[in-house]
């Protein structure tokens, strides 16, 4: 990974986003979610090409996983990237809905 990635959360109650900024770039990567039946459904991971290929999407998913463990919610992966990330991390099974 090149440059520092800063992740911020934007929680609007029943929906929200994680935003990733890569040091030295104006573009923002996003992971969007909605809450359904107490579960956060990870819907989309979007990383602009200018900051792609640097682990930004992985950091977004990792932050959501960290928050799930700290805040006690489950994640339902719907976005293909998030599904693949969960499949690669069997240690995340405890928070997968």
What is the topology?
Blueprint: E1 5-11, E2 15-22, E3 28-36, E4 39-46, H1 56-71, E5 74-77, H2 80-88
Parallel strand pairs: 4-5
Antiparallel strand pairs: 1-2, 2-3, 3-4
Region (Disordered): 1-20
Organism: Novosphingobium marinum
InterPro entries: Acyl_CoA_acyltransferase, Gcn5-rel_NAT, GNAT_YJDJ
Could you walk me through the main structural features you see in this protein, from its secondary elements to its overall organization?
The chain has 97 residues and is α+β, with helices and mostly antiparallel strands. It has a single domain (5-90), classed as Aminopeptidase (3-Layer(aba) Sandwich), CATH 3.40.630. The chain is 26% helix and 37% strand. The chain is built from 2 helices and 5 strands; from the N terminus they run E-E-E-E-H-E-H. The chain has helices spanning 56-71, 80-88; strands at 5-11, 15-22, 28-36, 39-46, 74-77. Strands 1-2-3-4-5 form a 5-stranded mixed beta sheet. It is globular. 24% of the residues are buried.
């Amino acid at each position: 990974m090149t440059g520092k990635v800063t992740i911020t959360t934007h929680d609007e109650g029943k929906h929200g986003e994680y935003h990733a900024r890569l040091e030295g770039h104006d573009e923002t990567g996003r992971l969007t979610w909605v809450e359904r039946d107490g579960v956060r459904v990870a819907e989309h991971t979007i990383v602009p090409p200018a900051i792609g290929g640097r682990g930004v999407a992985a950091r977004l998913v990792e932050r959501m996983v960290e928050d799930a463990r700290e805040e006690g919610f489950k994640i339902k992966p719907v976005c293909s990237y998030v599904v693949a990330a969960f499949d690669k991390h069997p240690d995340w099974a405890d928070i997968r809905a």
